[in-house]
Amino acid sequence: MTLIYELLDKKEGVSFSPYVISALLFLKHKNIEFERTGLTFTELGPKIRELTNNEWSYVPTIKFDNGDIIYDSPKIAEYLDSKYPENPLFLTKNSAMDDFLKKFRPGVGYHAFKLVILDTFYACEGEDAEYMRKARESELKQTLEDFAANPTSNFKALIENLQPLVQILETSEFVEGDKPGYADYVVASHLQWIKVLNSKCHAKILDSLSPKTREWSDKIEGLFGGFLKNYKCNEPKNFTAEW
Predict the structure, then answer these.
(1) Which residues, in sequence order, are bridge partners of residue 69?
(2) Backbone angle region of 94, left / alpha / beta, with phi > 0 → left and psi within -120 to 50 → alpha
(3) Do the Cβ atoms of 222 and 214 come closer than 8 Å?
(4) Contacts of 60 (CB under 8 A, 6+ apart)
(5) Residues near 149 by Cβ (< 8 Å), separated by ≥ 6?
(6) Global confidence as pTM
(7) Cα–chain center distance at 141
(8) What value does the mean pLDDT of the chain take?
(9) Dist. CA 46–CA 40, nearest whole Å
(10) Average pLDDT over residues 191-208
(11) pLDDT band at 93 (very low <50, low <70, confident <90, very high)
């Protein structure tokens, strides 16, 4: 059985990494059966380094039933299309799509991270919360609270960075064309990341985009028996910022 490792906010908690969510969608797209193994912040590094002989320490990491261990979501998608060419993930290969994806992650990903970083921290418990704060503040060179400051302007920036998606969906049913593919799953996984940690913020994002973007979102959430629609999410807490 193929096994995918994912990051949880706490024991028996939610799996929120957008890169894991996209990898889960890749596997669903290929109709590959898999089991999920959740790791908390403190468990993650040691386990993944053990699996990859110290070559990698993040998720998603997948151990396929043939023994292959593949990590990093773009590499996972490429591996899947190579090993399982039926129903390809990469449907639109051109400079415009490359440019869209190249700009999407640093734009949308950065502002999404700012919006949900405190939701992530407060969902963690005990040593995992301590680890998460220490690790992220070391990377960011500032406190989590300072990084998450000005949520209203950050929300507006996120909506601005989503406009290329809105434009594509004005004339296309899916980002990849007439059926969903790699780019759809990358975009959807980032929106699902927000939904898992802060459903109020996710709802407001969709309210701020076009009707066709909401239609696309509903279609993606309904794929694979409603996989994203039924995905486990946290309840918003009283520390959640209001927009």
Answers:
(1) 63
(2) beta
(3) no
(4) 4, 5, 6, 17, 19, 20, 22, 23, 24, 71, 72, 73, 76
(5) none
(6) 0.95
(7) 24
(8) 94
(9) 11
(10) 96
(11) confident
CATH no. of 2-83? 3.40.30.10
Q: Peptide bond preceding 60: is omega within 30 degrees of 0, i.e. cis?
A: yes
Contacts 24+ apart (CB under 8 A), 110-113: 111/154, 111/155, 111/157, 111/158, 111/161, 112/18, 112/158, 112/190, 112/193, 112/194
Single-letter amino acid, residue 123: A
The confidence score (pLDDT) of residue 241 equals 54
Sheet holding 69-71, edge to edge: 34-39, 2-7, 61-63, 69-71
Q: What is the pLDDT of residues 118-168, one digit of tens each?
A: 999 999 999 999 999 999 999 999 999 999 999 999 999 999 999 999 999
Q: What is the pLDDT of residue 236?
A: 66
List the chain domain ranges: 2-83, 95-227
Look-up: residue for tokens 């593919």? 181
Q: Quick one: fold of 95-227?
A: Glutathione S-transferase Yfyf (Class Pi); Chain A, domain 2 (1.20.1050)
